[in-house]
UniProtKB/TrEMBL annotation:
It comes from Corallococcus llansteffanensis. Residues 285-298 have a biased composition (Low complexity). It is a multi-pass membrane protein. The chain crosses the membrane at residues 29-53, 91-112, 141-169, 181-201, 213-234, 241-258. Keywords: Cell membrane, Membrane, Transmembrane, Transmembrane helix. It is found in: Cell membrane. NCBIfam families: yihY_not_rbn (TIGR00765). The keyword Membrane applies. Pfam families: Virul_fac_BrkB. Residues 285-308 are annotated as: Disordered. This is YihY/virulence factor BrkB family protein. One of its GO terms (cellular component) is plasma membrane. Residues 299-308 have a biased composition (Basic and acidic residues).
Amino acid sequence: MRPHHVGSLLKQTLSEWVDDNVPAQAAALAYYTLFSVAPMLIIAIAVAGLVFGQEAAQGEIQKQLQSLIGDAGAKVIEDLVASASKPRSGILATVVGLLVLAFAATGVFAQLQDSLNTIWKVKKKPMNGVLAFVRQRLLSFAMVLGIGFLLLVSLVLSAALSAAGTFLMGLMPGWETVLQLVNLAIAFCVTTVLFAMIYKVLPDTRVAWKDVWLGAAVTSFLFSLGKLGIGLYLGKSSVSSAYGAAGSFAVLLLWVYYSSQLLFLGAEFTQVYSRWLGSRRAERQSAQASQESQAARRAGPDRTERPA
């Protein structure tokens, strides 16, 4: 990618970010996230807990949440998870509870898919309403399981780093900085894979893997910077005190809304990159040439000379 391409890509990305009304899309996603985050984490913890145990998986989730949104926001999510995971009495109540749990967990990905379709300019295909709904929910549930798998990978790598750190500290003191950098790199890679999965799988259009990695990496980088920025803002501002008892909930909502903006900004960059420099470049150039040809024909009518 040449230097002048970067400016053009960013300019086009911001232009389409405004045209697609991304702030409104992010607000809708934040709304659905608040209702889906608890059941989604319960399923993810269950998947990762199959190997490491539920307590270890829940502890890793708690640590990640505290690093992302602070103690207050993490406490809100922990209370939601604890309330949603209370055992039901009776087989029927348990089955109904599991179905409601799965349905609620997929709501955020269903909304995310609709927003990504808007960004990719996907026209909805006429399908059977029930079949389309079931297909969308199954795809969303697969994404929830994917998050559980990534949590499992994160736990494995954290355990390996902890064991390596204990071993190396006995041999060569001063490895704390190196291990911290490795941990940051692993977190960046895991987040990049998650964003790449979202950009590749959820839109109802063909998206090449080679088109999603740059956008996913950019989003992961912005997400890391944004995590520091929103942490400083929430630490300095009086958001929590301004809303009283609902202050922690307001902090969580603000963080989710901010993260949704970054997610959609990365999606806009991905689709712009695919059309300008990626797999859809030839398709865009062909469509542009066709439009220019039609415009030239309309602007240049046949001229006949009149006799003097």
